Amino acid sequence: MLDVHGLRKVYEGSGRRTEAVRDLTFSVEAGELVCLVGPSGCGKTTLLKCVGGLLAPTAGEVRLAGRRVEGPPPGMAFVFQEYGRSLFPWMRVGQNVELPLKQKKLGRERRRELVADALESVGLADAAGAYPWQLSGGMQQRVAIARALAYEPEVLLMDEPFAAVDAQTRADLEDLVRRLWRERGITILFVTHDIDEAVYLGERVIVLSASPTVVQEQLKVDLPAERDQVHTRVSPRFAELRTRVYEQIQAAKRGGAGKAVQ
Ligand code: ADP
Ligand code: MG
Quick one: which H or E segment has residue 26? Predict the structure, then answer.
């Protein structure tokens, strides 16, 4: 579904050069939920922007269903970290969710159905008439997720979407993402700096090195599909997986390939 090949991104401007991403190659199958984890500043946002066609790579390419991404492709939706800035404060929740659908040339009835269904899916069926600033941070991020869902994307890109909410809200939102993924069969690429979150959410974890970024390791998460915050996180396998990711990230910081632990 998604192929990233030899992706490199160098920022240039005012005499400075930053090689944010050195050489990234990985793919994501249709219907997969893949987490990318790496330290802050390692180029995760840069990578997602290139994948989403918001930023042109310096070298390499991104393909969505075989077609080269050269601008925001119609089948992709984004959920960003800064929910506060991603919703329009002067529009009601329902209007925010409906906005991207207007590009899709759908009839008014169909748009209404999609908006109602998406809000229902994220547990905000009653909030359509509210303004975003009347909602808590966690609820605002639910609205952003509903907006992405209503758009019916093939691929959903999420950039540290829960980094700014409290722990309980975050746990609920993680479970929401897994539920939506299972119900809707969307392909999800989820970026986080949080190792536990990556292991809890992902079917596969791609570990990124520090900037300039390369893929350090890919790890299949063989936890059961049915996960829950209490039992999954204390299971021995969860502990093994998180330890392994942690060691890979430490190894990446030292610049070595790291010794894999079984
Ligand atoms: P992450 O999301 O993993 O924290 P980013 O992709 O935001 O990392 O940034 C990766 C590197 O690229 C950092 O060193 C950052 O300072 C640099 N960078 C990000 N955006 C720009 C930009 N627009 N211009 C120059 N450098 C940038
Ligand atoms: Mg970032």
Answer: strand 16-28
